Structure formats: C-alpha cells, structure tokens
Amino acid sequence: MSTDAVEQVVADEATSPESIATAAPTPVLQLQDFCVDYGVGARAVRAVDRVNLRVDRSKVLGVAGESGSGKSTLVYGFTRLLRAPAVISGGSALFTAGPSREDSGEELIDLVGADEATLRRLRWTQISVVLQSALNALNPVVRVGTLFDAVYRAHRSDMSRAERRARSVELLSLVGLNEDRLQRFPHELSGGQRQRIMIALALALDPSLVIMDEPTTALDVVTQREILNKLAELRARFGFAMIFITHDLSLLVELADEIVVMYAGRLVERARARDLYESPRHPYTLGLLNSFPPMHGARHELTGIPGSPPDLSQLPSGCAFQPRCPYAMDRCAREQPPLAPLDEAGRYVACWLHVAGEHATVPVELRRAAPSSRDGGSGA
Amino acid sequence: MSDADVPVSVLQSRHLTRHFRVRVAGQGWRRRVVHAVDDVSLDLRAGEVTAVVGESGSGKSVLARVLARIIAPTSGELYLHGEPVAATSRRTLAYASDVQLVLQDPFGSMNPVHQIRHNLERPLMIHGAARQEVRALSEAALRRVSLEPPERFLDRYPHELSGGQLQRVSIARALCVRPKVLLADEPISMLDVSVRLGVLNLLRGLCDDEHLAILYITHDIASARYLAEEIIVMYAGQVVEQSRGTALVDDPTHPYTQLLIASVPDPVNPVAAAPDTGEQNLSTIATQGCRFHPRCPRAMDICRAQEPPAYLVGEAHTSKCWLYRDHPGAPVELAIPRRRGEGVTTMT
C-alpha cells in the first residue's frame, strides 16, 4: 500500500502539514451519529451507538472487534439489509453514488431515508457485499453460472445471453478461476473457490464500495493469503473502496488504510492502520493486539482480555469496557468517554486515560510513539 | 536432545495410514484413493503439547480420529503406554477413557436438548462412575476448566453459554473420565478472539499440572508456536516437517512450511506478495514423487520422480524434502516403543 494512500485518509482532519498538500478526497460514504437498535421502546437494545466514520474513494477501512461488538450490524445497518426487530434509530449515512450509466453526475444519497427503488438502484451496482460464509450465501441448488446470470438479469436487462456468459467468464478469470466452474454447484467447490465466486459476484457490476464481512475467517492461511492478494490486485485495477470487517487485527494492519475498533456498539478507537498496530491508545485495542500469539520473539504467556464481551441489554455504567479494563479508574465507571480526537494525525480514542490533564496516568504501553508522528508519515 | 530430557510417550503411532476410496466428480467419476493419513509416526508425551499444523484437507482431523480410533486405520500400529493396540479392531471403553477427543465446534458436539449436567454425566455413567459420585465428579470437571461456580453451569442448556464457555465444557467432558491423552481438533478456531487465549492457556495448564499428553490440531501456526513443545506440519496426509520447540516456525526448511508461514498476516514483516501456488486438492496433489511438487516453487527433477525421505536438518528437526539430501545428518527412524517398565521410569 502506498504511503500517500495512508496520507489521504487523514486529510479530513487536516492536522498534519502533508495532508494539507493533498487535495481533499471525496468520501464514498459518511456516517453521522449512526445508531441501530434491536427492538423498540423500553426494551430496545442499542447495537450500534452514534458511529461517525467516513470511507474515502478507493480506500480500505478496517472494522475490528469481537463477536457482538456491532461490526456486522453497522454495515448491514447502513446498507439497509437489516430486518425487524433491527431499527435504524438515528443518524445519517450519506453515500456518494458514482456516475452510473444513465446519468454521469455524482449524487449524494442518504441511505437511511432512501426508498426501496433508490436502494434497488444502488445495490450491487454501487454497493455490494461479500458475506462470511460463502456456502450459505450461494444458492446450493443452482449452478454457479445461474448465480451470475441472475445478477445481470436483475440489473442489466439489456444484456444478451451471450454477453452475460462472456462477462461471467471474464469475472471468473479475474479471480483466477477456470470457466468450467460455471457448470458446477457450490458444494462441488472448495471453500476458497466459493469465496472467490462471492468476490467475483460482488464485482460483477463494478461497484464503488465493496463490503467484506469476514470473507476469510472460515479459510485457512494459504487460501486467505491468495484471496487477499487477489483483492489487492482487483482493487488496484478497479479502484473500489472497501470496508473490511474482521476480528484479525494483524490482517487489517496489512490491508487497511484506516482502522476503527468497535466495542459494545461504539467506536473506541480510530487510527491509521500502522499507528493502531504500533501504538494503540485504547486499552481494548491493546488487549486485542495481545490476543494473537506472535510469530517472532521469545515465547511468554499472553493474557489477552479477561472476561467476556458485555450483554448489550445490561451494559455496565460509564465506559462499557471498564469491567474488563486493567487501567479502569473511578471516572470510568461514572461517565462514558466520548470518541475524541487525540493530538496526533487522524487519531480518535474514547478513553478517559487520554483526556487532557490526566496524562500522568497514561500507562507507558498506551503512549508509544506512532510511526506517522515519528517519521512524518513516510510509512514504516 | 537426549532420551533423558524427553518425557515418556503415552500414545505413539508408527506408520499410521488411512486411505479412502473415492470417485472424483468432473473427471468421469474416476476411482481414486485419497491418502488422508500416510505413514505418520508420532509420539504424544506426558506433559507436552504436540501441535499438528496444516491446511484444510491435509489430513490432520483424520489423524486425530484415527488416533482416537473413531476411524480405523488402513495400516500401521498404535501403542498406548507402550502396549500395542489392535489398531484395526473396534475402540474399547478402556481406550476411550485414556484417549479423549475434543472437537472444533462446541455447539455441534453437545446435545442441545439436554442441560450441561446431562452432557457431563453421561460419559461418567458410561465409564462406570458410581451414581452418588457423578455429581461431585462433574462439578470437579467444571472447576478444572475454570467454570465457577459449577452449579451455575450445570443447569444451563448449551445454547445459553457462549462459545468459549461451551468449549470449556467440552474439554471438561473429555477430562471427566481422567484421560491420559487429549486430542484437540481445532479447539479455538470457532471461538472469539478474546477467549481463544483463555482456552489455549487452559490447555497449557492441564498439560503442566496434570501431565496430560495433548495433541493440538490447528491451521494457526502462531498458536502452535505459542503452545507446543513439538510442531508437526502435515501436507496431503504426510508429515513434511517436524521439530521440537519453535525451530520450525523460526527457521522453516520445507517449502510448504515456508509457504504456510509466508501466508500468515504479519505486521512485523509484511510480505509484499506471497507466491500464488494454488490450493491443495486432488488435482494438485501429486501421486508420484513429492506430493507438494506441483505447488512447490523449488521443485527439481528428482521431486517429480521420487518421494523424498525425512532428512535431519537441525537438532530434533526433520524435513521431508530433497533440498536437504546433502545434509550430513541421517534421518532417524522413531524406535518401536519400549514397554512400560522396560529400562525407563514411567510416569503414572
């Protein structure tokens, strides 16, 4: 990943001199105070709580967190794929629809208020989703070719059978599969091949934003690496932006430009990928990073994060992470920390440890120098 | 490493092999034999974790099931406490009480219509525990996996527990018949990030405190490095590289191990692009020569013609690859196990 790519992500904060030099990139997606509840009324559970984020054109945003942290609910929320009892209870999701076939101008659409017809126009052609379990996401009783056909029939009714077939073969070759796969049923393919089919389907109509919900979690490392290489290649060629959800932070550091970490429905930290990895500021991020045994260095016992994620219907008072946090202070149990900008390039963190005046209490492992501040953002 | 340093083997396999006859779709339903486990010799030692690492389809789960004798081997021998086990015969209750298997998906391996109590008590009853001590034993089993207080869990149903808790219950269930060997087939791959380490540390503790011999099957080579005293890499049913300690991860010698390690996302050493070598399936596994040669970036003529033996490439570190044919050390054939009490002190 080029270092200017990393640069541009933080241009909206305009805190570093380099970012001023770069022209402001266009956001593909901008979430403002986005909230999703499960259920309504007194028993509603807030699964996504006032999330603010933006994804710039051709950039990769990583979303990390444990199961139940709300990362999938977040993306299914703004793509409007959630069904009752999930309700979008607040905020907006501004999507910049790219030039489409009919009209060549860009238009700004709030996905939260969009009607079915608008959504139908955007889905797949502008925003597409790759789901975690490819076997469950592919219709098991039709051949792969039929799946591709269905996409074109729904969105490009002007295409002839021969054109559809030619385009399907082209897409398969993009993800490195032979055209004979079109005649196969999903169960006849390996996990990696199925996930490649999912990716090919997602790219079928050249979307500007692709959402990947743990696309490699069910795969083993070698297949995962091949899928990641393929994705990098396709992104370089088509320039789509990507939201990549995973719990594997080390994977995100390689892949993403910017990473947000979610806990109990809220963003707890947001930073450039490299900064987040080398200098985490939130105790939860540090815990997540310490949950992966390293591939290098001496072996020593790791502790990870004690306890388990909170029940969203009975969130602890104050900061939701406070019962599991080794650095919890009195204030943490009383007040919820806001996601506040830190005095560094594009960094936001929701933790009282970093609030001005209490800096003396920041533990050393949570104030390591960030690579972008150390060497002026020229990368690692 | 000399004999004295290495603890006593509890379960040993010699030339263990399991073939499956299949018909291949897309190739005119041609008959083929899949060598799921091929000539695997390993020693599981008391108080040690042995990790088996490999891709999906490398035969690691079949190996665990053959060792648990749920699947009968095609050939080869098994020794429990140095005594030969009639490997091809049916599994006996005595064998099952010594060798227990923990599966990947805790939700799938518990009976969902019964409480945890039933799921824990049933193996105890089958293994002949007295009715009055069953409750105490199942509570003790839950304590051993740090599910406390046990009363809180006994009356729950599997769906009421989290994945991490349920995996602890399935480890407790395996432990309640006091096995000497625990075969753990990808015990953490379905669990959440923050609870994975807890389960790994639990396995480590059981191994250290109770001298269990643990076989840890995984595709996550970093967790194998974290946990294991010995690491074995399998490809297409064969052991391709094996080392004690972390030598295999720190200094991989077999091209397949190198590929595995290069594929791990590693922010410390990001790889620009790992070679795209295709995947392991029937068409990329060679039937002649080294099984890995169609995907191997360093394949030579001899690799296509002849299967390599395992060469000694370091201290207690072997690699089944022709690249090391000029290495001075000769491969060591694992000895046929000594019987209990023959010259070595045994651990009980």
Q: Any descriptors?
A:
heterodimer; A: 380 residues; alpha/beta; eight-stranded mixed sheet; 14 helices; 12 strands; 20% strand; disordered C terminus; B: 348 residues; Rossmann fold; four-stranded antiparallel sheet; 11 helices; 29% helix; globular
Notes on the protein architecture:
- The complex is a heterodimer of chains A (380) and B (348).
- Chain A contains 14 helices and 12 strands.
- With 380 residues, chain A is α/β, with parallel strands linked by helices.
- Chain A has an 8-stranded mixed beta sheet with strand order 6-7-8-3-9-10-12-11, sandwiched between helices. Chain A has a 4-stranded antiparallel beta sheet with strand order 2-1-4-5, covered by helices on one side.
- In chain A, strand 9 and strand 10 form a beta hairpin.
- Chain B is α/β, with parallel strands linked by helices.
- Chain B has a single domain (3-104, 179-324), classed as Rossmann fold, CATH 3.40.50.300.
- In chain B, the strands form 2 sheets. In chain B, strands 6-7-8-3-9-10-12-11 form an 8-stranded mixed beta sheet, with helices on both faces. A 4-stranded antiparallel beta sheet of chain B has the order 2-1-4-5.
- In chain B, a hairpin with a 2-residue loop joins strand 9 (230-235) and strand 10.
- At the A-B interface, helix 8, helix 9 and helix 10 of A face helix 7, helix 8 and helix 10 of B.
Question: What is the compact description of this entry?
Answer:
Helices cover 31% and strands 20% of the residues of chain A.
End-to-end span of chain A in angstroms?
Answer: 11 Å
Write the element-wise H/E pattern of chain B from the N-terminal end onward: EEEHEEHEHHHHEHEHEEHHHEE
Main sheet summary of chain B: 8 strands, mixed
Which sheet architecture does the biggest sheet of chain A show? 8 strands, mixed
Find the count of extended strands of chain B (DSSP E, 2+ residues).
12
Please tell me what the overall shape of chain B is. Answer: globular
**How much helix is in the residues of chain B?**
25-40%
Largest interface (CB within 8 Å) is between: A-B, 45 and 48 residues
Return Rg of chain A in Å. 21 Å
Side by side, the strands of the main sheet of chain B go 6-7-8-3-9-10-12-11
Output mean pLDDT of chain A: 83
Distance between the termini of chain B: 23 Å
Helix content of chain A: 25-40%
In the CATH hierarchy, the third-tier topology of chain B is known as: Rossmann fold
Work out the number of β strands of chain A.
12
